Amino acid sequence: MVVVNRASDVSQLGDVDDLDEEPGEVIESAPTLRVGQERELNNSGLKKRLLHKGIGWETPDSGDEVTVHYVGSLLDGGAFDSTRDRNEPSTFTLGRGEFVGGLDQGIATMTEGEIALFTVPPHLGYGEAGRQGVPPNSVVQFEVQLISWITVVDVCKDGGIVKKIMEKGNKNAQPGDLDEVLVKYKVKLDDGSVVAQTSEKGIEFYMKDGQLCPALPKAIKTMKRGEKVKLIVQPQYAFGEVGRDADNEFGLIPPSSVLSIDLELVSFKPVIDVTGDSKVFKKILVEGADTIAASEGATVTVRYTAKLEDGTILEKKGFDGEDPLQFVTDEEQVISGLDHAVATMMKGEQSIVTIHPEYGYGSIEVKQDISIVPPNSNIICEVEMLDFVKEKASWEMSEQEKIETAGRKKEEGNLLFKSGKYQRAGKKYDKAVDYISEDGYFGDGDHKVVKALRVSCWLNGAACCLKLNNFNGAIELCSKVLDIEFHNVKALYRRAQAYMETADLVLAELDIKKALEVEPQNREVKLMQKNLKQLQGESNKRDATLYTNMFAHMRNDFSIATKKLKVEKAEDKKGDAEVVAAEMGKVAVSSDSNGC
Fold first, then answer.
1. Please, are residues 75 and 125 in contact by the beta-carbon 8 Å criterion?
2. How many other CB atoms sit within 10 Å of the CB of residue 363?
3. Cβ-based neighbours of 302, under 8 Å, separated by 6 or more
4. Coil vs helix vs strand at 583
């Protein structure tokens, strides 16, 4: 919703684009009315007759500032109040009871430019008191035209930052914590004095670094490109009880000052943590023309420049008539950070990629086309995605193509496994299985080939999981094999390995026994059985020590409790004896007294 500065005459209102909904409290609109139709709203007694249809579909929310023209009259037609007579519309906050209570409910159902006649019962109007020109307990009518409204958002839900949207932004995207934003602002005190202001070009900063005061980034995160707002900021989100000293440019901000900030989000550049560990960042300068990213396995064509942080150029491709860089993503044909980032790019996208040494050239010195990369250098790449061709999807392939592709992926995985690249090898095996998943249809002659290929990939994937200490992953893959080949020794062996690593010795023993039933002389399985027995022995010793210590503590506790009980009993007996002696003493004294 937005402030729409349009003429109050409905005839001057033209068509406008539908507006996006602003977050905030939602008031459910009344069902759609036709012109001339009347309906009671929410069984409240308030009736609405539509006189002129409005524009769009949005309606104001509670807390929004609405601007309306209205004419209030009695049922006999006698007018008692009119903004039209004053030639000045009325502005008030919806839902605060600043106007007739029943009209708050009614206006919340109106769209921009709409004119409606509301019949207001006494309990929603002026009640028993009435007002000048309105007798007590009168039913009144209001003809209302909704001219415009300002959306009001309580940014932090505590009244500390109130945002009034003066001009709606475009698109739905809002800045995130990592993004770089360009904003303009002017900051005023209650007396109207300006205490901070950007230049006409605005100021650019990263959201995570903050700017001016805590309120600014919090408000910006709720804004869209081109949006203009007015902020009312309480001291806890401004400069608090300390305030801010004057500087050469702007004056003093006294302690506990409430600030009024005119703020515009001119633009922002999304910054993405590509690898999720803050070591490869991609800042999008120009968004792509499509919604589909290259992804892994795509053949990409990019124009790019690689630099050091000091601006030293390392490599350039695709400039001055030189061919652009072409490579297949996820094939280690370029440094890892560039590979990861390019896989997320769309056609036409231009980005700056910042790469940590871990995803760049590491701790060694490397000679590039133009310059040398020193050890532990961050690399800055300016990249433009010219084109990419994605891998053919399985649904686009014939059954024979799927089998051939799965076989090729498996062989690629085998080569990676032999070179110690277990993570990437595992991904190849997973891709291979995806091409020949159980959901696919294969002819009778292909079933055996597909089953063998699937089992081989699962087993190899389990081997990768064991190398990467992903024991639960290994158990899952081996279990898939054993669901269709319950006697598969490799699957039993590798699952037993994983069980031993997760200390599930009973399950490991069961798998080893099954494997030896199939191949009694298998040396590797027999060696594992020997290792298992050693682990079981060590586990039994630990358990014995644990229980011994446990029972020792229990005996000590029992002994202490027994001694305490004996002491208490002895003290009780001593007390009883003292009581008896005292009583005997009293008797003796009494006898002597009687004798006197």
1. no
2. 10
3. 317, 318, 324, 325, 326, 342, 345, 383, 384, 385, 386
4. helix
